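The protein record quoted for completeness.
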Amino acid sequence: MVSTDSIVTDVKVQDIKPKDDAEKLEPSPLDAHYDPAFVKKTIRMVDWRMLPLLGLLYSVALIDRTNLGIAYTAGMVEDLGIAIGERYSIASMIYFFPYILLQIPGNIILRFLGARSWLTICVVGWGAAQLGMAFVPTWGYLCLCRVFLGVFESGFFPSLVFIVTTWYKRYEVQKRLALFYLSSIVIASFSSILAFGFTQLAGRAGLDGWQWIFLIEGALTIALGILTWFFIPDFPDKSKFLNEEQRKMILDRVEADRGDSIPDTMTWPKLWKHLADPSDTKWTRCTIAFMFLASTVPAYAMGFFITIILEGMGFSESLSLILTAPPGVFAAASCFFFAWISDKTRKRAMWLAVQNCICIAGLVIATYSNSNPVRYFGLFLVNAGATGCVPGVLAYSANNIRSHTKRAVQTAVIIASGGVGGIMASTVFRQKDYPRYVNGMWTTIGLQLMMMVLLCITTYIFKTRNRLRREGVLGPLEGAEDFYYTT
């Protein structure tokens, strides 16, 4: 473990001064203190050690929380009577209550137990809950398993985002978040085809096709949880797979970029301070949390309902499962493009608004077109617009805060708001509105429009504060002498 005395001996935060609201577009002066080949090799080493497994784990998490729609189409509706009343919406929604409530405790536990131990507990725990769904006799027991799924998944995603943001500079974050997120979208999209294969095991061992989906996917998740223990790296200051020089370089880059390479200790007073922050930074957390909610509603709606919507277009069960994949692949490509251009231009709000427009266009087409191929194209646009906004909003948040404790609290609050988005998606897309779900579609459109308004407001306020800081009217932003907001 590198000592705090050895960190940032050659460069200070004050050495890096922004030229405009987006900071300089050229590389940080810090990198000149290290051999470029050494920097590139180390960053790639971190990328390969962390991103593939995290991406796979998040893929499995996304599959496990949204595969109810696939199981519904694969026969669960008859066996558990889940189409009666609002049972399907309740089973989808109930997962999110523990998921929301346990976000902040999860990030606090993360710092005490370490990344490897905490993520292993989360993955094995939700894998067991997923496997248990294969043997539920009634829809009530299914709901109970969904509650346990929410309990264990609640600690995973905010911890994952928190860990990633501690390893990279601010304008390297969104590409990384997008990489594991888009990989999860691709894998989750093809999971419907894989699930179709699992359904062919119907009758084996006395299990129906939908039971095999939960059984195999649950067992796979538990196996990945065991791999997590052996391969997931901890925080930069505790990592063991880097040598001392590499670790110091990683920490130096983060310190020079935003001044929080060394974690500050979480205490109860500090937790309450961040939660009930009386300063004018509280509005930022609330605003970005709403943006994340607006982004997750269409994302969850597609996860829960795309196979059902396709079946409502007249496609067969097998074709509905197969046609779920292409919109996800398209969304992954779009997600990475917008992440790349956002990091390259060092602009967040503008590209988020573009993706809101894409999502709105898709929602209108999918709702009102009378042609099934055109409606299907609309689902491509909905998926693309919603998918890219999820890592985009997280990067927007991460770029505009400092300190590990504040980052832990804000990340948890924002991702918890995504759980609220999941509840909304599972309730506003009502069974009685099948097959077009007009009520749910218009609710989602309204959220996208509201998000665009909030993006305009945050951009104006951040730009104004950056200007006043340069003019000396405001004191240090976020408590750092040369910190400027990203717009």
Observations:
- The mean pLDDT is 81.
- Residues 438-470 form the longest helix (33 residues).
- The chain is about 70% helix and 0% strand.
- Residues 271 and 409 are 7 Å apart (CA to CA).
